[in-house]
Amino acid sequence: MMKRFWLEKMLGMLGWAALFAVAFDLGKSWPVSLGELQGAENPAGEKLSQPQSREGKTEGQEPVRLIFDTDIGNDVDDAMAMAVIHALANRGECQLLAVTVTKDNPYAARIVDLLNTFYGRPDIPIGVVRGGKTPEDGRYLRQVVTAEDGGKPRYPHRLSDGRSAPDAVQVLRRTLAGQPDGSVVVVQVGFSTNLARLLDSPPDDISPLDGKSLAAKKVRLLSVMAGAFSEDLQKRRFREYNVVTDVPAAQKVLGQWPTPIVASGFEIGRAILYPVVSIRQDYRYVSHHPVAEAYGYYRGLEHDQPTFDLTSVLYAVRPERGYFDLSPPGWIRVEDDGFTRFEPDPNGKHRYLIVSAEQIVRVREALCWLCSEPPQRLVPQSSSDR
Ligand SMILES: [Ca+2]
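Above: query sequence and calcium ion SMILES. Below: predicted holo structure tokens.
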């Protein structure tokens, strides 16, 4: 115990020393604000400013306003994608406005609440689907949500029954109505049930706009994990799970959504595997980590995991970092059996992600860092804390 105390103390001092070194290298007196650092020159004389966007505005000032729509519990990548969102929120790159759930299981909303609480954002609105798809528990929801140590919940959270959470469409409407026009990015990594119902929603006391007009007014981009666009998957007529599970909803959203859509097809997440060694090594900053525990139940601690939903989040928040290339514009068509086809059209509003071998390596490493990033403040865990 004493050894650890002194080790931490020394590491802390080293950290401060490094910060002072940076400050003096820049020829500034302490303290140096982040703003000053961004505008300053480094010793090599290169400007440390933020990149300029096409419109000439400085990027990175305004966090991406994000709504996450998920079928969490059917696969573990949804939970990992939430960890990535919270890491990006820690860095001021995004603001998580709300989470809506398309898996119709009461533990799904509870694990969302649990993860938001673990990452220090327990007040984020959560909406749930009613009469939705995949009501079964899946492989990790119940285990992680109900885990206990010494008779106390291992991962504290407020929501004691997912069924008591508000309806997803209401949460979507209220969240969108409260945001500036053209500012929201929606990330949909499950079925299209909630967004299809949003499009169908009539004006109400939340907003005088119907759902389609509200989305047109408020949403800048819809980033979806859906479909399959590579040559081999097209040839095999591969039907992707998120689309197949609720085909009419996918047809509605991909046919009627009023703003641009970027899809991460099955081939992207399949090509970029999250290395299980990261799960075994990078989450040990707490005795029990909900994401690592969910991973263990779902995938096991011997196997890598496709990064499907994580890629939709990464693109939504960091679209201009060259992690992915984009297809030419066109339209994603959903056939009645759930098969997706892409029709190029210069006036189309849809694109899909493409990755090169080099980008695969870059994205994998970025996702390891982001997914395993500790919360800004750790919630004390019961009994067995190290
Ligand atoms: Ca998912």
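Confidence is low (pLDDT under 50) at residues 15-58.
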